[in-house]
């Protein structure tokens, strides 16, 4: 299973841009020893890249009891990161300095979901 966005994914992500901020939902399943590697990646993000691109962690938490899930569908962690725009996210992941640390995330994870979300306005 892929854990990093690919070129076609990023093109679709930009093409579907409704404008405004985006909150990226990260569902994470760690590889053996992955929590430690992910902590290194998260530290680099929080110290350098999130402030540089106007982003912030909205929530980060460990997975707990899965109430509505099949066996194997529970996640180890959930992270919500708010970016001022989809373009800000894309610029960050394209930054050569970011590319030097993204391997930590890749090595840390067995599986992941990275999904853009936008504010919901119920009818």
Architecture overview:
The chain has 123 residues and is an alpha+beta fold. It has 5 helices and 4 strands; from the N terminus they run H-E-H-E-E-H-H-H-E. It has helices spanning 7-15, 34-52, 86-94, 96-99, 102-108, and strands spanning 22-30, 56-62, 77-83, 109-117. It has a 4-stranded antiparallel β-sheet. Helix 2 (34-52) packs antiparallel against helix 5 (102-108). The longest helix has 19 residues, at 34-52. The chain is globular and about 35 Å long. The termini are far apart. 15% of the residues are buried.
Task: Set out the fold topology.
Layout: H1 7-15, E1 22-30, H2 34-52, E2 56-62, E3 77-83, H3 86-94, H4 96-99, H5 102-108, E4 109-117
Antiparallel strand pairs: 1-3, 1-4, 2-3
Give short descriptive properties of this protein.
123 residues; single chain; globular; alpha+beta; 39% helix; four-stranded antiparallel beta sheet
In a few lines, what is going on in this structure?
By secondary structure, the chain is an alpha+beta fold. It has helices at 7-15, 34-52, 86-94, 96-99, 102-108; strands at 22-30, 56-62, 77-83, 109-117.
State Rg. Answer: 15 Å
Spatial order of the strands forming the largest sheet:
2-3-1-4
What structural class should be given to the helix and strand makeup? alpha+beta
Report the span from N to C terminus: 36 Å
Mean pLDDT level:
91
- Number of DSSP strands? 4
- The portion of residues forming beta strands comes to 25-35%
Helical proportion? 25-40%
Biggest sheet, in brief?
A: 4 strands, antiparallel
Could you spell the SSE succession in H and E letters? Answer: HEHEEHHHE
| Low-pLDDT stretches | none
Give me the number of helical elements: 5
Overall, the morphology is: globular
């Amino acid at each position: 299973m892929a854990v990093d966005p690919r070129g076609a994914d990023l093109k679709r992500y930009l093409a579907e841009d409704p404008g405004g901020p985006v909150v990226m939902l990260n569902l994470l399943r760690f590889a053996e020893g992955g929590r430690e590697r992910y902590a290194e990646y998260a530290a680099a993000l929080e110290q350098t890249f999130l402030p540089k691109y106007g982003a912030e962690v909205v929530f980060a938490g460990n997975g707990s009891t899965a109430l509505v899930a099949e066996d194997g569908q529970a996640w180890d962690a959930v992270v919500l990161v708010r970016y001022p725009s989809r373009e800000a996210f894309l610029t960050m992941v394209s930054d050569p300095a970011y590319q030097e640390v993204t391997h930590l995330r890749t090595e840390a994870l067995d599986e992941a979901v990275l999904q853009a979300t936008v504010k919901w306005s119920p009818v």
